[in-house]
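Proteins fold reproducibly. Next comes a concrete instance:

***
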Amino acid sequence: MKQLLIFLVLLCIAFGIDKRVIREADLNQDPIVINVSGEVRNPGPVKADPYTTVREILEQADPTEDADLSGLNPDMVLNDHDVLNIPRQKEPDEPERISINQSDAEELTKLSGIGPSIAQRIVEYRQEHGLFQKTEDLMNVPGIGPAKYDALSDQISL
């Protein structure tokens, strides 16, 4: 009796499941907007498909000859309202800035006053909330207040 009841329940479940194939075109494909700035010929908001990569945005933004693309991960997937700032190649005597949107925790520890735990918080914050929209957003990370931000603001970039 128990086995018959289990069989009937499974049979009801099997016939109750919608077995239609989901096509990609049926999924919500609302465009995302990426704000591009810096060393590009076409700055400003760029509409793109979800799961667009940095490489695809760079093709539309058209970086200038002075653009420094070495710190960018071309395969990174962008989210709606992300800011992609393309830095200028630094002059030989210009101090190097560290990207708070691209750097891993190890590289972030090179910033003055940033140890391994705060560096990890920066990475986790970025993963949870998306790319920083402006450098001042770094103060939203626990452990970074106005004083610490002021001390490292000339060492960072987006």
